[in-house]
Specification:
eight-stranded parallel beta sheet; alpha/beta; globular
């Protein structure tokens, strides 16, 4: 996490040789993406100099001289005291609570994870493009929504092969037929859903399924490449080494530019990154992003998935940040959904007493700020550490523009704290245990480390004479 008030900086890596010194300068947010070039520079040099403020000492070349560089290539953070690794979200602010509340326009782009791919801070979700699932919009209305999103500066659009039986991708393909328009957009789609009834290999993450799904998506999207290809959900029947080898094939062929995971356990995503290294796959096969459900009503991802993403350099793109519309405030204790209104059951299952309490607080907070409850909920999730671009869905231009205004909302520390406290998740072991264990790590004398001051331990020596 960046310190309060931290700002982006330049890092210059100079290589000194017998010929005049050569150097390359990179922006810290894309540092890892430039490592191969830096490493190549270093192998021909006698020494490396990391120029920073304050300076990092010169590193003489030797057996371990490039260890920090190769560590970064393997996704391990190299962070001497004078260097702060970038947050995968690409943002430059923060608070001690892990929230970020500075307003930013839709055309203030962020880099996605540990990559140089620039995306808008809100991503347009295309699950509502098409009417096959009975809650979406027709092609003409969908195209008007895309028009408005692009006009505001958005460039990141997310779909999936299974959305509305493939019609979501087709609507995008019809819209982006013009290559110039298509090349300016970052189009993401997913594989895993089975669109072929009775075919056991029509879905999932095996090699046959992935290669076929990609070709089908390219056909519907009417393009020859996918900017970001997601594994939609973990296929427990397929070994991860097979999945990653198939992704490498797509990357090497030029059909896929970047890869990411959606709805997959943290340990499987970590295994996938390991497989890239173990098999010697292309660096572009390494995932750069993680798409997960994240909202005021779904925070259990803060236990494993969010910390994993931040540690391994994956930008988080939350889906359903409004929890199926519950957090818009349209459902309250006095205005519950009509009988049969929720055909999927998603809303009914989640309209609990706790959900109504959260909606009550959102309504009160929105009145303080002069905005809508939905804008408060979106601002909260977009401000969480590690989040790069939240996925917003809209069936109409009016809904879209209302959601985009959330980027102008700035929650106060007190407002964020109230929302955090009300929605604090219950996490799996060992999270609660480790929170208490910090006392034993700090010892019997109170100390503050990175802003945290746990209570003094009653179990450990208070003076040196008590130690055996």
């Amino acid at each position: 996490m960046r310190p309060q008030g931290h700002r982006p900086h330049w890092l210059t890596i100079s290589a000194r040789r017998s010929t005049p010194a050569a150097s390359t300068t990179v922006y810290d947010a894309s540092f890892a993406a430039r490592i191969p070039r830096i490493a190549a520079l270093g192998t021909r040099a006698r020494s490396l100099m990391f120029v920073h403020n304050p300076p990092i000492p010169k590193l003489p070349l030797g057996p371990n001289a490039l260890r920090p560089i190769f560590a970064l290539r393997r996704g391990i953070a190299f962070a001497p005291a004078a260097f702060t690794s970038p947050d995968p979200s690409g943002r430059t602010g923060g608070t001690g609570s892990g929230s970020y509340t500075r307003a930013m326009p839709l055309n203030h782009y962020v880099t996605l994870g540990r990559s140089g791919l620039r995306v808008s801070p809100f991503c347009l979700g295309a699950m509502t493009f098409g009417e096959e699932w009975k809650f979406g919009s027709n092609p003409n209305d969908s195209k008007r929504v895309i028009d408005a999103f692009l006009a505001h500066g958005g460039n990141f659009i997310d779909s999936a092969n299974m959305y509305n039986h493939g019609n979501s991708e087709k609507i995008l393909g019809d819209y982006f037929k013009d290559k110039a328009k298509r090349d300016r957009a970052v189009i993401a789609t997913k594989f895993s859903g089975n669109l072929f009834p009775g075919d056991p290999n029509g879905g999932g993450s095996n090699r046959k399924a992935i290669l076929r799904a990609c070709d089908e998506s390219l056909r519907r999207l009417q393009t020859d490449y996918i900017d970001l290809y997601w594994l939609h959900f973990w296929d427990k029947q397929t070994p991860m080494e097979e999945t990653m080898a198939a992704i490498d094939t797509l990357v090497q062929s030029g059909k896929v530019r970047y890869f990411g995971f959606s709805d997959t356990p943290a340990w499987k995503v970590t295994q996938a990154i390991y497989e890239v290294e173990r098999q010697g796959l292309s660096r572009a096969a390494r995932p750069i992003a993680l798409q997960i459900e994240y909202s005021l009503l779904q925070r259990t991802v803060e236990g494993e998935l969010i910390p994993m993403a931040r540690e391994l350099g994956l930008g988080v793109t939350p889906w359903s940040p409004l929890k199926f519309g519950i957090l818009t405030g349209k459902y309250t204790r006095t205005s519950r959904p009509k009988e049969g209104r929720s055909t999927t059951g998603w809303i009914d299952r989640n309209l609990t007493d706790h959900a109504y309490a959260v909606v009550d607080l959102l309504i009160a907070t929105s009145k303080e700020l002069g905005c809508t409850p939905a804008q408060v909920a979106l601002s909260w999730v977009q401000g969480k550490a590690g989040v790069a671009s939240s996925i917003i869905g809209a069936r109409t231009v009016e809904q879209l523009e209302d959601n985009i205004k959330a980027l102008d909302v700035k929650l106060t520390a007190a407002q964020t704290a109230r929302l955090d406290e009300l929605t604090k998740p219950s996490l799996n072991f060992p999270h609660d245990f480790l929170a208490g264990a910090q006392t034993q790590i700090h010892g019997a004398v109170p100390m503050t480390i990175n802003g945290e001051t746990p209570a003094a331990s009653d179990l450990l020596p208070k003076v040196d004479a008590e130690r055996f």
